[in-house]
Amino acid sequence: MPKVPSAAKKEKTLYLLGAISIVLAAIFWSTDGILLRPHLYSLPPSTVVFWEHLFGFIVLSPFIWIYRQELKLISHRQWLAVFWIALFGGALGTAFITKAFFLTNFQNLSVVLLLQKLQPIFAIVLAYFFLGEKLAKKFYGYALLAVFSGYFVTFKNLAPNFDTGDKTMLAAGFSVLAAFAFGSSTTFGKYAIKTINYKLLTALRFGLTTLLMLATVLYFKLLTLPSHSQWGIFLIILLTSGAVGMFLYYYGLKKVAASQATLYELAFPVSAIILDYFVNHNVLSWTQLLGSAMLIFAVWRITTLRPVYTPISGTVIAGSQLGRSLGYRTANLDPALASALTTGVYLVNIQLGSTTYSGLLHYGFSYLTDALVLEVLIKGLADDIYGRQITVSLHEKCRENKKFSSKEEAIAAITKDYEMLG
Question: How high is the mean pLDDT of the chain?
C-alpha cells in the first residue's frame, strides 16, 4: 500500500482539530454548571431548557435557510436520529442534569458529575451496536482507564459526597438518566452527521428541542419569564455552553468516532474540578490529581490510535457512469454497505477474484450531483466488472469530501487523488 504522508498529516490535523473542539465544548459545559446555572435556580428546569434552546435556535436558524437544499436529502432514518438527538440530547438530557444540579443546590456536585463516568459506557456500547464502530483492541483498555480515572477525578478521597441527604440519591438518579440521554445523543449524532452538514444539524437540534420544550412548558403551565439578570445569564450560556458549545461539538463529532468523542468529553470533570477550586476554594486531593494525570494520559493515547475499518464486500452495480465521463472508471456498490463509515475518500485494496488491486474509495454525495454514492476507483483495471463480487479493505482516510462547481475542478481533484496510488 503506498504511503501518503501529506494526506495522512492533513487528516491527522483535522482529527486533532475535531478532538480539541470537543474538549473546548466540554470545558464550556463545566463553566455552565458551576458559574452560570446556579443563577437560574428560581426557574423550573424545563423553563431553563426552553429559553436556552430558543436563544440558540434564533442564532442558528439562518443555517436552515443556507442549507435548505440539503433538507430534502435527509433520509427517514436520519430524521429519526435528529429527533432522538433533540429529545434526549436536547430536551430530556439537559432537563435531567439541570434538575440534578438544582437538587444539590450546586453545593455538592460530586454525585451529579457521575454522569460523565457513565456516559462513555452508554455511547461506546450504542456505537458498537448501531454504528458498527470497531476500534483497535488497545482502545478499550484506554477507555476503561479513562472511565476509571474519571472516578478518581470526580470523587474526592474516592467517596461520593452524600451530605445532601435523600435528595443526593435522587440527583444521582437524574444524573444516570442524563448519562444515557447524552451518551445516546452522541451515537445518533454521529449517525446523522455522516451526510448532514454539522451546521445544519446543530440548528435542527436546537429548533426541534425548542418546539418540544415549548409544548412541555405550555402543557404543564411552567412558562416563566426570567429576571433582568437571568436574561444576561442566558446570553452568556448562548455564547459558551449553549449554541456555540454545541456548534463546536458537532464540528468535532464530524471528525472523530462517537466512541472517541464521548471520551474527549471527559475534559468536563477535569475543568469542573479546577473551576471548583478557584470559585469555591475546594482543594484537589491527591486522588484527584492522580486521576487527572491518568485521564489525560488515556485520552492522549486514544488520539494516537488508528481506526479499524471493517472490509466492505458487495456486488458491483451500475452507476451514473460519471467517473467514466471524467476519465476514470469506477465500480459502484450499494451505499448501504458503508453504514459504519464516515464520508470521505479512502486509500484501499480491492480483492477481485484472486487478484488484489490498489485504489481509492469515495463515500458521500456525488462530486457533481446530490446522489449518495459508494464508488471505488481501481488502479490498472479497464474491464467492466458489473455483477462481480469485490471486497474492499480500507487503510487510511485521505481527505473529506468536496463539492465541485465544475467538471474540470472535479477532474483535477480526482487526478491529484489518483497520484497518491503511485
Answer: 82
Rounded-to-integer distance, Cα 235 and Cα 81, Å? 28
pTM over 0.85: no
Which residue stretches of 340-392 are H helix? Answer: none
Kindly indicate the confidence band of residue 2, based on its pLDDT and cuts at 50, 70 and 90.
very low
CA distance 263 to 143: 7
Helix (H, G, I), strand (E, B) or coil at 329: coil
Q: How far is CA 237 from CA 39, 203, 205, 244, 322, in A?
A: 11, 16, 16, 9, 47
- Residue 188's contacts (CB-CB under 8 Å, 6 or more residues apart) are 81, 84, 85, 126, 130
CATH architecture of 312-419: Beta Barrel (2.40)
Phi and psi for 159 in degrees, rounded to 5?
Answer: -130, 125
Domain limits, CATH 2.40.30.30, in the chain: 312-419
CA distance 243 to 29: 11
Q: What is the DSSP letter of 306?
A: P
